[in-house]
Amino acid sequence: MEYRHTPVLPAEVTKYLSLHPGSTIVDCTLGGAGHAKRIADSIAPTGTLVGIDQDDAALDAAAATLRLGRQITTIILKKGNFGDLDAVLAEAGIAYADGFLFDLGVSSPQLDQAERGFSYHDDAPLDMRMDPAGGAMSAADVVNTYSESELARIIGEYGEERWASRIAAFIVAARGRRPLQTTSDLVSVIKDAIPASARRSGPHPARRTFQALRIEVNGELEVLERGLRQAVRWLTTGGRVVVISYHSLEDRLVKKVFAELASGCECPPGLPMCTCGREPVVRIVTKRPVVPTTEEIERNPRSRSAKLRAAERV
Q: Same domain, yes or no, for 169 and 300?
């Protein structure tokens, strides 16, 4: 299957990364290189592009796509997790970066490949691992081994699902009869758990639970915070971090980390002089999140929930 990827907010990414020839840019979520191709062309002919992904299919597709672009000095593709940026970039042999891009969420090819288990529309093994070969637990492991209280917390916190406790109770009851092994097994349980009146409107009843499980399986929020903080450490003065998020948990976390890194003195009011010595590390470039236009959403419906935030190293 072709690894397709339609980049979200492409013009805005180019603008807020402030790209120019000779830049060193790190695409932390390479995917099919939709963004990376534009970045590579913008920093040619003397720039350096580092692309990171934990999906082998994405890395293969990106390598093919980037060969079609204008030649730049260096293209480095690394398999890894952006939560381990320090190690990945040290291995890549770069000393600094002028920009980082984080395009979060699941790419279209991962959703479209039923066997990956991300989609509630197809019958497939309950997997949801970004790196299927990585040896981490799968979504099936989570639903079949976590306690009812743990499942309720995850579904409620990560999925923002009002029926979290009820869904967790139904999962535990169902797995007592036989393990839940496929996406269809789980979707059936979720539909039974949510009252019919609540299923008649709004998104698919399984959407929030599947989102919650994907976040838990891949440790997405912890990895994101770690990756953001590491990225800022590698930035040159004036370099930028650009993040595109797709749900409120991610966006709130990005906003919180940027706000913390942009804050200065934390001394109590009234002190004659600062004693904490804290100075801002970044300047927030986007006062409010940048969102897709109506035209982009019509062209690419999966962009509808996207929010872009950017910060600049000071």
A: no
Provide the 3-class DSSP secondary structure of residue 93.
coil
Which residue in 229, 94, 218 sits closest to 158, CA to CA? 218
Number of domains in the chain: 2
Residue 194 CB: number of other CB atoms within 10 A? 20
Q: What is the DSSP string of 22-54?
A: T-EEEESS-TTSHHHHHHHHHHTTT-EEEEEES
Q: pTM value?
A: 0.86
DSSP letter at 182? B
Position 84 in a domain: yes
Based on the domain organization, do 176 and 243 belong to the same domain?
A: no
Task: Give the other-Cβ count within 10 Å of 64's Cβ.
Answer: 11
* Tens place of pLDDT per residue across the chain (314 aa): 455 568 999 999 999 999 999 999 999 999 889 999 999 999 999 999 999 998 888 898 889 888 866 566 689 999 999 999 999 999 999 999 999 999 996 665 556 566 677 888 888 999 998 877 766 799 999 999 999 999 999 999 999 999 999 999 999 999 999 999 999 999 999 999 999 988 888 889 999 999 999 999 999 999 999 999 999 999 999 999 999 999 899 999 999 999 999 997 777 877 888 877 788 999 999 999 999 999 999 999 989 999 999 999 99
CATH code assigned at 230: 3.40.50.150
- 7 vs 44, 97, 180, 283, CA distance in Å? 20, 22, 34, 26
Omega prior to 45 cis, within 30 of 0:
yes
